[in-house]
Automatic annotation (TrEMBL):
InterPro entries: Gfo/Idh/MocA-like_OxRdtase_N (IPR000683), Gfo/Idh/MocA_oxidrdct_glycsds (IPR050463), Gfo/Idh/MocA_OxRdtase_bact_C (IPR043906), NAD(P)-bd_dom_sf (IPR036291), TAT_signal (IPR006311). It comes from Pontiella agarivorans. This is Gfo/Idh/MocA family oxidoreductase. Residues 218-271, 429-472 form the Gfo/Idh/MocA-like oxidoreductase bacterial type C-terminal domain. Residues 48-170 form the Gfo/Idh/MocA-like oxidoreductase N-terminal domain.
Length: 478
């Protein structure tokens, strides 16, 4: 569905023209556009032409997966076609696809040739690329986390309704048998009365390794010659002095541009219960322990809690903890332990990232890993007790297919996506609130109706930090 607001469209187009001039970006000639080649007569119902924002790194995997699901790349956009991992292999695989440095120019120039847009770039630039594409009637696939800030997710959820396009966030495990089985557990009443949720992730990123932590203040680096423009890389966020860790990958560890481990893996770990138990937004966020805390990059270890209020019958309040770093595994209450052949209690084995859901008075808990991992009941005799019914649940809704193919099918009008912005936007807001808790390193009270912190102006500013000059228009599109 195209935007029919003439005045808004004209304003956006005028802004885009001004932006393109200021960016000094060149594009390849239009005769190289694959979608315009003579003889391409496929009707729209049989093809999805894909504009790709982000070609290297994670973007390369997204492009291959969507192409393998029936989408056809017709435009590539990246600020660096040299340095990011795998970018050259993608360009080699699609040599005739035109390349752009500015997503604004790509979407405007290729408007009539693009049906959908994939966004796989640093977290802080997800929002402007997504909202622009949506405002021009394009379906959008955006890597997790959906946005860097709370308000950006709020706007994208409004835009989803306003523009009527297909949306999907890239938390791949939210499509498939794992989420189906968890939904079955909910339907069976196995999740009734849950009051506690422990979520954890072992360290893996540079800022979580003592030997890779950097000192403050940051040392100014040299912008790589392959990076088209650092100003455009910063997008709507502050243009800080360049640091060598920002590009092409380690930006994730900095508050200004990324969401740390919580944003990176939280979308793959807490997504099942947040969606299926309708957890909504928390009313309290407490920083329990932030090791080596500062306000530039994320802690060496993060341990925080969130309180989610009751949501009606069989849905009491849930206290959730998030712990990332070494020794992040939660204590599992003894009633959920196994016993060996001699009756000796055995602590359940926990993997590198996952969730444990239970109530203190319950006789079973639900244990799950991450991504597409299948949830299971513990202790094991409880899973065996419900095995037959759960087995049928794991086979349900196989038509949902894989995460990428479900997006492509939905773009063709066949079914729906499992993680549209109406679902993933709320999850991303929870992750954004968590990062504010990490940054502030204190106790915060949040009003989920007014969507504001109570009595903390600094925290409220972080919900919707002002856009950098030249990017304000993106925050008026929905």
């Amino acid at each position: 569905m195209k935007n029919t607001d003439g005045r808004g469209t004209q304003s956006r187009r005028s802004y885009l023209k001004r932006s393109a001039i200021g960016a000094g970006v060149t594009v390849l000639p239009s005769y190289l556009t694959a979608a315009r080649k003579e003889g391409d007569k496929l009707p729209p119902s049989e093809r999805i032409n894909l504009g790709c924002v982000g070609v290297g790194g994670r973007g390369s995997n997204v492009i291959r997966s969507l192409a393998g699901s029936g989408a056809r790349p017709v435009a590539f956009c990246d600020l660096d076609f040299e340095l990011p991992r795998a970018v050259k292999s993608v360009v080699k695989a699609y040599p005739d696809v035109p390349r752009f440095n500015d997503f604004r120019v790509m979407i405007e120039t290729m408007d009539k040739d693009i049906d959908a847009v994939s966004v796989a770039i640093p977290d802080h630039s997800h929002y402007p690329a997504a909202i622009l594409a949506m405002s021009m009637g394009k379906h959008v696939y955006v890597e997790k986390p959906l946005t860097r800030t709370f308000e950006e997710s709020e706007i994208l959820m409004r835009a989803e309704k306003k523009y009527g396009v297909v949306t999907q966030m890239g938390n791949q495990g939210h499509t498939g048998n794992g989420i189906n089985l968890f939904g079955k557990m909910v339907d069976m009443g196995l999740c009734d009365g849950i009051t506690r949720m422990a979520a954890w992730k072992t360290p893996g990123l540079w800022f979580m390794k003592k030997n890779e932590r950097i000192s403050l203040p940051l040392v100014k680096g040299t912008v790589p010659a392959s990076l088209n423009t650092y100003d455009l890389w910063c997008g709507p966020r502050r243009k800080l002095p360049y640091n060598d860790l920002y590009h092409p990958f380690n930006w994730r560890g900095f508050y200004e541009y990324g969401m740390g481990m919580l944003g990176d893996w939280g979308a793959h770990i807490v997504d099942f219960p947040h969606d299926k138990l309708d957890m909504g937004l928390p009313t309290e966020i407490k920083a329990i322990h932030m090791e080596d805390h500062n306000k530039v990059f994320y802690p060496l270890e993060s341990y925080l809690s969130m309180h989610f209020p009751a949501r009606g019958k069989n849905r009491p309040a849930i206290d959730m903890t998030w712990h990332d770093g070494p020794n992040c595994w939660p204590e599992v209450p003894k009633q959920f332990w196994e016993k060996d052949q001699n009756g000796k209690p055995l602590r359940p084995r926990l993997n590198g990232g996952g969730t444990l859901l239970y109530s203190d008075e319950g006789d079973l808990a639900i244990l799950r890993g991450n991504h597409a991992d299948i949830p299971r009941l513990i202790p094991r005799d409880q899973h065996i007790r419900y095995y037959d019914e759960l087995k049928e649940g794991s086979k349900a809704d196989k038509g949902s297919g894989k995460h990428f193919s479900s997006f492509v099918r939905a773009c063709k009008g066949e079914g729906q996506t499992n993680s549209p912005f109406s679902i993933s936007g709320k999850l991303s807001q929870v992750l954004a609130l968590g990062t504010i808790g990490q940054y502030m390193n204190t106790e915060l009270e949040f009003d989920p109706v007014k969507k504001q912190f109570i009595g903390n102006d600094e925290a409220n500013l972080l919900l919707n930090p002002p856009a950098r000059a030249g990017w304000e228009e993106f925050y008026k599109m929905a």
